Amino acid sequence: QHRTGKVRCCTQFLRPPGFKVNLNGFENWLRLGGISSKRTKASFAAKAKIQVRKNYSLPNGSASILYGLKSPWGTEQYRHELHIEETAHFEYRARKNLTFNQITNQVSGFSDLLVILSGSSRSLDWPWLYVGRGKRKFSYQHFYSSSRNSSPAPKPFAYWIVFPSIADKFGDLLSRWEKANEELGTGVQLYVGTVKSDALHLEHKFVNLIWGIEVLHRSKNPETEQPSHFKIKIDRILSDIKIGKDKAWLKKRLATAHEPSLKERLVSTIETLSLPFEEKSLDDFCKICADLRNDISHFGGQRTFDNYDELLQALHDKTGALLYLYHAIILMEIGMDHESLHGIFLDSRHSGKIAQKFSIAGLNFNSEQDPRQI
Prior knowledge:
By secondary structure, the chain is an alpha+beta fold. Helix content is about 45%, strand content about 15%. The chain has 13 helices and 10 strands.
């Protein structure tokens, strides 16, 4: 809706397009804290130091973090209360004309990136879109179909990564996140969708995580042709089959027999993190995860475990570890270095909780291997 009440067609191109969205609820992640005060028996004084905006150049536009202050204007002297609040907004400006749908995708993409960087599934406020410049710049608050998560903002020390630690490379992270969505698509979005949803059953959450890691591996490792020795072996087996329809059936089944198994895909993807897992514990963890996924997807329930309660416990334990691993894998995909990830998993205030989750899931670190030497 336009600020004057006019409504524009949703298929119209914005010229030049942009949006601004309030980062309400992410103040702790941004590490806002420029307000100071002094109180005596006879007086109270407050002052605020507003941070300088941060600007980032992007391949298809530019972005900024805008800082401000929400407080009364003027010099009114007689008040019985005074509210002062430090604020921040994210602003994006595209270089080319975009439709409403395209710029809505930009808003959603930034919201998803915040999920990855902050670890919070809290939804952003509704954005303000704008078009034009100078006296002909108009703003529209944009409401669109979207699942909303109003979960409370995390506590100050609940974040893996805080904005000041990535402020200098935030533009690069934005660009790489957009590229990751284009190239890996479902491989990254299955994680975001899983953590943003409060309504998923445990089975659904677990299968989504395994499915997402499998898709990620397939996207990054497109299948090659069958190795020549493998093809020779298949041809030799098929030559012994006399019935034509049996030969055609088996040939179709063996066409993908050279592809990695689900367990091998899980092991390969998790190993990219270079975390010092004991080899056997990682292999066992991935085998059970693959078996559980196949039990649910192909055999209608528990086959690996004797009863449903044992199945649920295994799903709970493995899901707890997968959420950490998948999160770290995506962070690495958008440019987080191994040293920073190792710091989170092994040396930060979160490392004890993470190690406990891993241990419960059957994943153990190799105590003899110094992770900083990897």
